[in-house]
Design a protein that fits this description.
mainly alpha, elongated, two-stranded antiparallel sheet, single chain
Amino acid sequence: MDSWIDELERDLGKLSRNQLLAVCGGQRRDIPSVERAERSKLASEVGFEITLWLAKRFAGTAVEFPSRQGHVSRDRANQLRAAILEAGLGDNPTRSANDIAREHNVSATWVYKLRGQLRQELDSPASDQRQLKLPL
């Protein structure tokens, strides 16, 4: 399931997402109503289009904006998991843990640990074999 910030990126683009997180990342902010969106402080900071999108979804509520670093960390973790899966989870992966670790600036021990977790998730009888659960 996508978070609202991912939906904003899909609707308005990565530039809008980055602009919003640059200004509001890590903060709790009140979202104006649609009628007040254009004249709001938020609109003067991030632009009317972003504010209108937020107002249509969250008008009159306070929203916790994710930090910029949290998004970067999540993306890096997803890229690492993708590299491990691409290399293979079997006994003879196509890339060594050292290569993956060097590329993603982590330790080989962490790559081995993640490989083990991913194998366990795939081998679990309760898991859906078509999709891995990735932490957010």
